[in-house]
């Protein structure tokens, strides 16, 4: 009973900030000193859900960019994380520090140079260009998460599988990936959300031609339509919530977690 | 590179030839030669860090040797990846795949070989029956006890009918009673399947129970490969003898079957030797009698210590020439401390080895052990333990 109460409390505290947003998105004007809006409307949501709306486009563009960024970050992060987690080589500490650079250094400081490069490459204002700059913060996160996952991974499982007749590819698919899956899910979640919420890099590199959800939100915020902005905000939180629910299910499976301990 | 003075002998089932593996400049395995017959149970025995697990991993293909080669059924394994070697590995921790059920674990090797689903299930279940785990196929590995997990690991390895079953300290994580049950089980399974078994262990009693021959390793070198009996009775040097619980060592001058002790006593042995030697006798082979009798190899002694350990009595004896001997006698034979007695050292139990042969060069011994295919000594290892004196011929 107390446990349920505590859980309820946590959920309430976490979601309380979203309550005004939810109310705003259905309100037709909500001004001081009203406790609740006088008039309600579905207009904001209707305009968002219209297929041709900016919001819809932004949503799918964000989804596309975040998915590709996550995929590419995984492609780099899996081998890099393995190397950092399992192998010892000179300069490993320096490489780990180097990986933190995009997190330490403000993207504003590097934007000029990046923009200059991307313009020369003709990638400014393209989705590919945006994906590339999104890799700047996502690859370090992914690599660091996966390196700590691999640090707890016992390669004895792989040796065992090889001796039982599994080829390296079979070992990867049947043993290694299932065993590191929880870490991969966490890393992918991080990468996806970082890319999904990225504003500054997209704003400059996209040059107004790549229009992700945060950009839509930004313009709407400038436009001053509070109800519409609230609705867009909620839309932009949705994938994070869905992803979180999905991954918590993946993380709960103790068979997957078990791979990190010994049997 | 190889001498060809002996007639070509048929290639043994498994042959390790001149295996050398170095980690960061430290040799883990040095010039190791070993032949194994089909269906043989052989154990690699030695203290931790002696290179026995490395040797096993070289066989399994997890590690690549810096030098040398391994032949299985006369086929070089140098370029054969682990999955194609037909060797199954059982590691200390069992290493059951935690995301698969017990049945899926056992069937894993079959699945990799493309065996049909129905046959996989049939053979996995039959194998689980053989290790007395019927009905466990749907359980998760996390629900198993340590002994059960290890039995599943053995089943998983045997179901693929390997040419070689490699066990790396498979029982060291289990408690004593479970361990002897597992030893019985493994011996029975080996008997039924006829699989060639190589077991790595640091426990000499386990090595003795489990194997036809024991390969004793120190510092990356094979010291002696012999039957358990021979290792007890006829160790090649003091280190080997001490590893198998030898406690009595004393110097003597040998003239064929006569041993002249430094204190003046004369003993005769059935094992002829020449020159300065180190004599050893196992403590359980010394007979202690309260009264003088007629015969040879009798030493008058005084009992200086008497410890009752349940199944035996451990006596410490001192001869007139101040030589100390340990004798393990039946518990019924009680002696008072200070009591005079006669120690009988049977001639067949008195074993000798050259006094200076302690240690020796790895390649020297490797060559001896390889008997028929010996290597002309060049690759002399530059790493020598400080106590190792100049390499000498052992025979």
From TrEMBL, chain A:
Family under the similarity heading: Belongs to the binding-protein-dependent transport system permease family.
PROSITE patterns: ABC_TM1
Phylogenetic placement of the source organism: Bacteria, Bacillati, Cyanobacteriota, Cyanophyceae, Nodosilineales
Protein topology in the membrane: Multi-pass membrane protein
Segments traversing the membrane: 63-85, 97-119, 125-150, 171-194, 200-221, 228-246
Name of this protein: ABC transporter permease subunit
Keywords, alphabetical: Cell inner membrane, Cell membrane, Membrane, Transmembrane, Transmembrane helix, Transport
Keyword Transmembrane found: yes
GO biological process, one term: transmembrane transport
Domain named ABC transmembrane type-1: residues: 59-247
GO cellular component term of the entry, any: plasma membrane
InterPro entries according to UniProt: MetI-like, MetI-like_sf
Subcellular localization(s) per the UniProt record: Cell inner membrane; Cell membrane
First-listed, main subcellular location of the protein, grouped into a coarse class: membrane
PANTHER family with a match to the protein in the record: INNER MEMBRANE ABC TRANSPORTER PERMEASE PROTEIN YDCV
Pfam families documented for this protein: BPD_transp_1 (PF00528)
């Amino acid at each position: 009973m107390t446990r349920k109460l505590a859980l309820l409390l946590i959920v309430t505290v976490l979601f309380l900030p979203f309550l005004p947003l939810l109310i705003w998105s259905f309100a037709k004007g909500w001004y001081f000193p009203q406790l609740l809006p006088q008039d309600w409307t579905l207009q904001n949501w209707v305009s968002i859900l219209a297929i041709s709306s900016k919001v819809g486009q932004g949503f799918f563009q964000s989804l596309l960019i975040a998915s590709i960024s996550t995929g590419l970050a995984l492609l780099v992060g899996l081998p890099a994380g393995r190397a950092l987690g399992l192998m010892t080589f000179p300069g490993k500490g320096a490489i780990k520090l180097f990986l933190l650079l995009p997190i330490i250094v403000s993207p504003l400081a590097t934007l000029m140079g990046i923009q200059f490069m991307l313009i020369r490459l003709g990638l400014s204002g393209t989705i590919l260009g945006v994906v590339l700059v999104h890799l700047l913060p996502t690859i370090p996160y992914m690599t660091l998460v996966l390196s700590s996952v691999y640090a707890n991974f016992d390669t004895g499982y792989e040796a065992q599988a090889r001796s039982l007749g599994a080829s390296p590819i079979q070992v990867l698919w049947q043993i290694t990936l299932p065993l590191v899956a929880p870490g991969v899910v966490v890393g992918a979640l991080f990468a996806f959300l970082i890319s999904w919420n990225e504003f500054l890099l997209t704003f400059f590199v996209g040059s107004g031609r790549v229009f992700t959800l945060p950009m839509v939100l930004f313009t709407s915020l400038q436009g001053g339509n509070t109800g519409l902005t609230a609705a867009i905000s909620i839309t932009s939180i949705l994938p994070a919530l869905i992803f979180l629910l999905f991954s918590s299910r993946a993380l709960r499976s103790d068979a997957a977690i078990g791979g990190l301990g010994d049997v | 590179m190889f001498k060809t003075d002996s007639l070509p002998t048929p290639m043994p089932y498994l042959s390790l030839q001149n295996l050398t593996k170095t980690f960061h400049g430290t040799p883990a395995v040095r010039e190791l030669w070993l032949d194994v017959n089909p269906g043989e149970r052989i154990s690699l025995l030695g203290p931790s860090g002696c290179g026995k697990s490395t040797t096993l991993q070289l066989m399994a293909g997890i590690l690549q040797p810096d030098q040398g080669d391994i032949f299985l059924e006369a086929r070089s394994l140098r370029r054969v990846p682990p999955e194609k070697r037909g060797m199954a590995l059982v590691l200390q921790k069992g290493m059951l795949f935690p995301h698969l059920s017990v049945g899926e674990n056992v069937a894993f090797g079959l699945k990799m070989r493309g065996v049909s689903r129905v046959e996989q299930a049939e053979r996995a279940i039959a194998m689980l029956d053989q290790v007395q785990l019927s009905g466990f196929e749907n359980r998760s590995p996390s629900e198993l006890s340590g002994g059960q997990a290890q039995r599943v690991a053995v089943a998983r390895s045997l179901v693929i009918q390997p040419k070689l079953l490699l066990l790396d300290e498979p029982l060291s994580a289990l408690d004593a009673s479970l361990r002897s049950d597992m030893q019985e089980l493994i011996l029975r399974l080996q008997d039924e399947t006829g699989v060639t078994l190589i077991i790595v262990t640091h426990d000499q009693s386990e090595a003795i129970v489990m194997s036809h021959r024991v390969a004793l390793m120190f510092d990356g070198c094979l010291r002696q490969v012999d039957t358990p009996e021979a290792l007890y009775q006829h160790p090649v040097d003091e280190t080997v003898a001490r590893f198998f619980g030898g406690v009595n060592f004393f110097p003597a001058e040998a003239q064929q079957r006569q041993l002249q002790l430094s204190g003046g006593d004369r003993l005769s042995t059935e094992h002829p030797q020449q020159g300065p030697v180190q004599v050893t006798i196992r403590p359980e082979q010394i007979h202690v009698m309260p009264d003088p009798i007629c015969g040879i190899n009798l030493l008058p002694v005084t009992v200086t210590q008497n410890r009752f350990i349940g199944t035996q009595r451990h006596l410490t004896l001192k001869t007139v020439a101040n030589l100390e001997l340990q004798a393990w006698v039946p518990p019924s034979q009680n002696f008072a401390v200070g009591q005079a007695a006669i120690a009988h050292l049977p001639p067949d139990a008195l074993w000798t080895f050259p006094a200076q042969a302690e240690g020796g060069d790895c390649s020297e011994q490797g060559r001896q052990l390889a008997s028929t295919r010996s290597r002309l000594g060049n690759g002399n290892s530059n790493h020598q333990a400080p106590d190792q004196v100049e390499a000498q011929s052992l025979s």
